[in-house]
Amino acid sequence: MKILVPVKRVIDFNVKVRVKADGSGVDMANVKMSMNPFDEISVEEAIRAKEAGKATEVVAVSVGPAQAQETIRTALAMGADRGILVQTDVELQPLAVAKILKALVDKEQPQLVILGKQAIDDDANQTGQALAALLGWGQATFASKLVLEDGAALVTREVDGGLETIRVKLPAIITTDLRLNEPRYASLPNIMKAKKKQLDTVSPADLGVDPAPRLKTLKVAEPPKRKGGVKVASVQELVAKLKTEARVI
Ligand code: AMP
User: Fold this and answer.
1) Which cofactor does it need (predicted)?
2) What SS3 class is residue 185?
């Protein structure tokens, strides 16, 4: 079984994101970039499936600029077998990425695509669902446990009410949640080995997809600063404040 793992290059989760002065977007100049944390979890899960003898090949794919090669190399260093970069400098939106991934799925014929539940830059939480819809495949989102069976996947999902376990027929789309596993660090020898692994580059046009954005960003703004909280001495004081200051009751 082949597993396709889309990995997105995003601003590192430790970086304090700053909005550009003209409000046109986020300042990306000289900012550390890394693999989307949920995608590290996807790569880890796919590699574990291979180590358990359930998968035969793990293919990491990224859509983005030439530098997204680094993200793919990280996946290869963790243990993925080969990589595909769909190179484009266009601003990418989830539907465009899903269309590109659909074209790759048609070509590569994986049995499973494991995506992150969301990319921490846009927090869209859309690509996996859109891909499942475009392919007409079943989907199991927010996976916190995955058991691969013959022709199906048993997936425990993190839902509002707690946990839910569903069985999806393969081929299927899975999106990963935080508790699924703890991704490994790539060792130095594996980082060296990853440099020699196959990494092909294609363009969206090669796949017959126009990735042009369909949505327009009007303005990007910092969230308002949080004001300090106050301690109240009694329930009466709390109720009075809710009535007269917050005016919510
Ligand atoms: P999103 O829908 O943008 O929150 O992204 C959800 C997941 O889709 C990510 O965790 C990735 O697995 C995948 N994804 C989104 N954008 C890209 C991209 N440009 N390249 C590769 N994978 C992506």
Assistant:
1) AMP
2) coil
pTM score, two decimals? 0.92
144-156 per-position pLDDT tens digit: 999 999 999 999 9
CA–centroid distance, residue 94 to ligand 1 (Å): 7
Cα distance between residue 27 and residue 89, in whole Å = 16
Q: Please, how many CA atoms are within 13 Å of residue 45, restricted to the half-sphere of its CB?
A: 32
Q: Looking at ligand 1, which atom is closest to the CA of residue 119? A: 4
Ligand 1 centroid – CA 27 distance (Å): 20
Domain 2-245 superfamily per CATH: HUPs (3.40.50.620)
Using most ligand atoms within 8 A of CB, pick from 115, 175, 203 the residue to mutate for ligand 1.
115
Domain residues of the chain, as ranges?
2-245
